[in-house]
Specification:
52% of the residues are buried. A hairpin with a 7-residue loop joins strand 15 and strand 16. It contains 18 helices and 18 strands. By secondary structure, it is α+β, with helices and mostly antiparallel strands. Helix 3 crosses helix 11, helix 8 packs parallel to helix 13 and helix 8 crosses helix 16. It has a domain of 228 residues: 3-Layer(aba) Sandwich (Beta-lactamase), CATH 3.40.710.10. The chain is globular, with a radius of gyration of 21 Å. It has an 8-stranded mixed β-sheet with strand order 2-6-5-18-17-16-15-14, with helices on both faces. A 4-stranded antiparallel β-sheet has the order 1-10-11-7. Strands 3-4 form a two-stranded antiparallel ribbon. The N and C termini lie far apart (64 Å).
């Protein structure tokens, strides 16, 4: 283990003892800026966005709010860094499409290959498909659910064709949107591909791949435990607690220059080296985003290429993606694997369709079939059951994906504020959705979304059989 590692516990203790966060740990204003960015990366946030009667999707639409319009924009319409808190609602409804203006990013190169065309056969009847939300009595239509969930864009593909496409808010077909923790599922697929190729062994301890992590909590965890988030980590993501580990994580990853007084870790890598163990690995599922950053580090160290390079070479170029994507990075150019991807809606749908087609695209096996099967099969349902996800009864988490284990065998990539790629093999359906819901937790969005997805799946299957 290198000599410049900063144990998070010792840093926290200094803060508790000296009560001087600026002198001991970090420049508060600098970290406040990056903390807003880190919210993008994590699909399980605190109640930082607890709202009473937020503006509805029409009133909060960025086009109606007039954010960043004019030359220059009026002072009260500017969304920038510290003074305006660009991740607060309703400003986040603009920010989600403009992260490249707000954060350091690297491009995910699509190469020079032709764009793969998607067939379009729109079905206007989908708007009228009705369902009853979870724990509700009154029915809702598909179209009504889009407004209720602050949907910025959604594509439904059936049997390889786009049958529904909708844009609103900050997004149009040419735009890119923050995918949040949907990013994790891309990382999981790259890892599964490297396992299938023999570059990675999911039973090996992480410390064998990254010696810097041997003395951390991750050193003795198997790669599979990291992929399925069954690691036992002394780490929490409570934004309301000023001594929470997330503050140290935010300070470490802040790409801005550190103040002279700063004595903490200076990159995501250094922070990960100081995470300590709490309990036994492999006993239960606990969602902690830093697992994904460790997985991305293993990918880079074992293959000699980082996650962004793999994403370009293994996914973006072979699929003929429509647009380059953006990935947020720290001061070392390290990708924020936990949630820094920004991409177009149709490209998200392409990725979902690739998974639905067992990794085959235009007749070529892009993702090994065993990698797709590992994702679709999900994780350990018993280990997942104690985590308390009431909208996903009987579900599981594996390879950085959420499996529903319903009759249709559906599984999904999921991110805060309503991001999703939902794959339903039985219905031959893929749904890609970007949203900017005022509530970050998926548990607040699922009651409308999950039954809506099932209702459309039922409609498409019934239509196919006629």
């Amino acid at each position: 283990m290198s000599g410049n590692i900063y144990k998070k516990t010792s840093l926290l203790q200094r803060v508790r003892n000296e009560k001087d966060a600026e002198r001991v740990c970090f420049d508060v204003s600098s970290v406040a800026r990056f903390l807003q960015s880190v919210l993008v990366l994590l699909s399980l946030t605190s109640a930082a966005h607890a709202f009473s009667a937020p503006a509805d999707s029409t009133a909060s639409d960025p086009r109606n709010m007039g954010w960043m319009e004019g030359f220059p924009p009026p002072v009260d319409k500017v969304i920038g860094q510290l003074s305006t808190d660009y991740f607060s609602f309703p400003k986040l409804r603009w920010s989600f499409c403009h992260f490249r203006q707000l954060q350091a990013t690297r491009g995910v190169n699509r190469g020079l290959n032709p764009i793969s065309k998607l067939q379009v056969s729109l079905d206007p009847m989908i708007d009228a498909v009705a369902f009853t939300p979870i724990n509700a009595d009154a029915p809702m239509t598909w179209q009504e659910s889009l407004y209720a969930n602050y949907t910025d864009g959604i594509v439904v593909m059936h049997r390889g064709k786009i049958v529904y496409e909708y844009y609103s808010g900050c997004l149009d077909r040419a735009g890119r949107h923050g995918a949040m923790s949907v990013t994790k599922s891309f990382v999981g697929v790259i890892a599964e591909m490297l396992i299938a190729e023999g570059t990675l062994d999911d039973q090996k301890p992480v410390g064998e791949y990254v010696p810097e992590l041997i003395d951390s909590a991750f050193g003795s965890a198997s790669l599979r435990q990291v992929m399925d988030m069954t690691t036992a980590l002394d780490y929490n993501e409570n934004y309301a607690d000023p001594e929470s580990d997330i503050w140290l994580y935010a300070a470490a990853g802040n790409p801005a220059p550190k103040p002279a007084s700063y004595r903490g870790p200076r990159s995501l890598y250094e922070f990960l080296e100081g995470v300590e163990q709490d309990g036994e690995h492999g006993e239960k599922f606990v969602y902690k985003s830093i697992n994904t950053d460790v997985l991305a580090w293993v990918i880079a160290r074992a293959s000699g290429k980082d996650f962004i390079e793999h994403l370009s070479e293994k996914i973006w170029q072979p699929l003929g993606m429509e647009q380059e994507a953006d990935m947020m990075v720290d001061s070392l150019g390290t990708p924020f694997a936990a949630g820094g991807l920004n991409l177009s809606l149709r490209d998200a749908a392409r990725f979902g369709q690739l998974m639905l087609q067992q990794g085959v695209w235009n007749g070529k096996q892009i993702v090994p079939s065993e990698a797709v099967a590992s994702v679709a099969n999900g994780g350990d349902r018993l280990k997942f059951s104690e985590a308390g996800y009431k909208t996903l009864p009987g579900g599981s988490y594996g390879s950085q994906w959420w499996a529903l284990h319903n009759e249709n065998g559906a599984y999904s990539a999921r991110g805060i504020h309503g991001q999703a790629i939902y794959i339903d093999p039985a219905a031959e359906m893929v749904i890609a959705r970007f949203a900017s819901h005022p509530i970050s937790f998926n548990s607040g969005i699922d009651p409308n979304s999950l039954p809506a997805y099932q209702a459309v799946a039922d409609y498409l299957m019934d239509k196919k059989d006629k």
